[in-house]
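Researcher: Please translate sequence to structure tokens.
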Amino acid sequence: MIDLHTHSFYSDGTFSPQEVVRLAQKEGITTLALTDHDTLSGLNEAELEAQKQGISFIRGIELSVFDEKQASFHILGYKMQNLDALSPILEEIKQSREERMRAMLSKMKDESEISVSYDALAEFCHGTIGSGNLAQYLVFQKFFKNFKEADTFIKNFKGKPYGVFVKQAVEGIHQAGGLAFLAHPYVLKDDSILSRLKEIGFDGLEYAHSNHSAEQTAFYLDLANKAGMLLSAGSDFHGAYKPDVHLGVGKGKNPLSDKNMMNWL
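Model: Translation complete:
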């Protein structure tokens, strides 16, 4: 089994990188990628644990991007060697994230009875700071009983998208010696984006995802094959934050994909 899309507490997951790897080993995962949002912080920890557990480990990241027609989407970077090449992009996204979160907290304070300081939230987080982290903080502080309630509340205060221009992100991944894949295409409003992304150098597509139906998986597999793109598959595991998502499997608890379909691993 494989899983090429997972998150630790360095972004909005709830497990440490080591815990993600150990759970993957327990679940029979043989090839694993850690793809935290806009940070590389957990890769060394996960890679060392993967060596102990006998799991083939892929260095990964999930970057927040936009382009002229799509205000916000995500791309996955895999197999980066020169991680320093991504530093300028990650710093830009970090600043963009902070501006967005400060605006969200200000709006939340003005329009609700809940007030959270940015510094308190930052101290609570291990790495990147996003709406998922805010939801976890609100549950931790007992404002809400569960993450679903907190997420529903936060939607009222979400502001402008954040990230970097997609071409900049793809170039950064390539400069780091990696491959750029479009993440969970089901969230996109326009499938024609694939042709645009292919033109700017995208290498592949996450055709299989825990939120893809069997029909969507087949559809994106066909799109990727017709476009000559590489294939990726991932659960988008977040630990307790997304309790219905399990490592290595999609809907119906069926394995996400066959590793033999991915000759780039």
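Researcher: Any highlights?
Model: Strands lie at 2-3, 31-34, 56-66, 73-78, 164-165, 179-182, 204-209, 230-234.
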